[in-house]
Specification:
Distance between the termini: 27 Å
CATH architecture of the domain at 146-257: Beta Barrel
CATH class of the domain at 146-257: Mainly Beta
CATH topology of the domain at 146-257: Butyryl-CoA Dehydrogenase, subunit A, domain 2
Largest sheet: 5 strands, mixed, barrel
Strand content: 5-15%
Number of strands: 7
Strand order of the largest sheet: 1-3-7-5-4
Shape: globular
Structural class: alpha+beta
Helix content: 55-70%
Length: 524
């Protein structure tokens, strides 16, 4: 994707929902640093078509690392760090989306590696280092590391179907970096071609297990690992095929517990993918508003305002939800294992996959609508037309992430079933936030009724349930945190009978302050 910056001034003050979310997380002081970061991104050379050996792409990736988008949330202890990390990913995804994946995958891998004390003692300083090191060298000679992640490992926690493990692992004893195995076979991977190591799933006698597989062995020789990039049509996602022939790998966690070990990485990916979709929603909204405001020679179009307001509501609701999830991640991270709040657990484990599913699908619809600005005029060959088309192509990759939409919905059902006390606390908290709003309370009542049905019926309604769950959560958050004009517009258009099965812009705006809503979305 070409990283053409949006035409709006790159200041946090022009994204009021983001500014307010940072204030709620006590991260307001980070605003100046985020403004400076956006300025750096917009002034950097634009990378072309996600060519990962492109110096501009590497420079943007290095900027993200220096900003803390790899290690800030998971290794620091400052209040609001997860919200600042989330805001950084959200901004990076708007201005330099091609390099977002490598930042996110390394951060997700870090969530697993930090739980291995011996290996973390050696790798931690290299993963925490804010400076880039793109050299292809043994780890002992590196100053910073980039990580990839096996796609099968991520999919292994999906409840839809069993994912075949094509790698076989044979133990060989203790190595310098831990319990050493030899891995052979192939695996789809999510990585840049120059990743220094991967976390992969491989079969052991006890079942699928998690392994750290470096590009270079501990003795300084090249590992028997070949990474072949796969270039697809959709989005900036980095995809590769990994071929291993007796490659050295090191067991993480316990044998046969690969899905459990990978869960920490997948959890970070869930939030990151949601933020990436939020970035696409915001970019599409800014492009559309700027284009509409530039139409000086046509009369006012109330229908156009309906579409733009709908986009604005969708973008703010998505970001508000994602930033609340970031707060939940931080609160769970800071608490002792036996004292984590059930409410925060519910936000992290129930709402994160639900948000990835729903926000990703809304990004697909909104970016498709935005593409019409150029496409309807036959201008897809123009720079702006190409930018809008690439937004549309990027949306499915982030919304789907590493699993099918159905799998994400079933994961939500499994989490609701597995953590019944946390789910109950979540619903009680939303009921309290609703403050007596009959429309929100009706949705909560409907959700409870759906969850009381037999498992087979729940599965058949899984997409409907996840949609209602996310919309209700967004309505509650906006009801509590957004101006009444925003909250009421969202609740009226999403939770009423007209909110089901509608298309973008199909809403009654007669009771809305359109000028105020659009000014909040992007000051003129």
């Amino acid at each position: 994707m070409s990283t053409v910056p949006p035409p709006a001034p790159p200041l946090i003050a022009h994204d009021v929902p983001l500014d307010e979310a940072l204030q709620r997380a006590d991260a307001g002081p980070a605003r100046a640093g985020l403004d400076a970061y956006v300025q750096q991104l917009t002034e950097s050379e634009q990378a072309s078509d996600a060519l990962q050996n492109n110096p501009a792409w590497q420079a943007q990736r290095a900027l993200g690392r220096r900003q803390g988008l790899v290690a800030q949330a998971l290794t620091q202890h400052t209040p609001g760090r997860w919200s600042v990390w989330a805001a950084g990913l959200y901004l990076h995804g708007q201005f330099a989306p091609d390099s977002l994946d490598t930042l996110l995958l390394t951060s997700a891998s870090l969530a697993v590696l930090r739980k291995e004390p011996a290996l973390w003692a050696r790798l931690g300083p290299l993963l925490r280092n804010p400076d880039d090191d793109a050299r292809d060298l043994p780890i002992a000679r590196k100053t910073a590391l980039w990580m990839g992640l096996g796609a099968n490992a991520v999919q292994s926690i999906q409840p839809l179907y069993a994912t075949p493990t094509l790698l076989q692992a044979t133990p060989v004893g203790m190595g310098l970096w831990g319990r050493q195995y030899l891995l052979s076979g192939s695996s789809p991977g999510l990585a840049a071609p120059d990743s220094d190591a991967h976390l992969l799933s491989a079969q052991t006698p006890q079942g699928p297990s998690c392994f750290f597989v470096p590009r270079w062995r501990e003795d300084g020789e090249r590992n028997s690992l070949v990474v072949r990039p796969l270039f697809g049509a959709f989005g900036p996602q980095s995809v590769a095929e990994l071929q291993l022939s007796a490659a050295s790998g090191y067991l993480l966690g316990e044998e046969g517990q690969g899905a459990l070990t990978f869960r920490a990485a997948v959890s970070v990916l869930r939030l990151g993918r949601t933020l990436a979709s939020c970035a696409l929603l915001r970019q599409a909204l800014v492009q559309s508003l700027t284009q509409a405001r530039g139409m000086k020679n046509i009369p006012a179009q109330p229908l156009l305002d309906s579409v733009l307001v709908d986009m604005a509501l969708e973008s703010e609701a998505a970001l508000t939800l994602a930033m609340r999830l970031a707060q939940a991640f931080e609160r769970c991270d800071d608490a002792a294992a036996d004292s984590i709040s059930p409410l925060e657990l519910a936000w992290k484990h129930v709402m994160a996959p639900a948000a990835q599913f729903w926000v990703g699908r809304r990004a697909m619809e909104v970016t498709a609508e935005t593409m019409e600005w150029a496409g309807s005029q036959g201008a897809l060959d123009s720079p702006q037309g190409q930018t809008l088309a690439r937004l549309f192509l990027a949306a499915p990759a982030q919304g789907r992430g590493e699993g099918m939409g159905n799998a994400l919905c079933l994961q939500v059902l499994n989490a609701l079933d597995r953590q019944k006390p946390a789910a109950r606390v979540l619903f009680e908290a939303m009921e309290e936030i609703a403050g007596g709003d009959a429309r929100i309370l009706a949705q909560l009542h409907a959700l409870r009724a759906m969850l009381a049905q037999p498992p087979a019926e729940q599965q058949a309604m899984a997409r409907m349930l996840v949609q209602r769950l996310v919309l209700t959560a967004q309505a509650c958050l906006l009801h509590r945190d957004a101006p009444p004009a925003v909250a009421q517009a969202f609740i009226t258009t999403r939770l009423g009978n007209s909110g089901t099965g509608r298309v973008l812009g199909a809403l009654d705006t007669r009771q809305m302050d359109l000028e105020r809503l659009l000014h909040r979305a992007l000051p003129a």
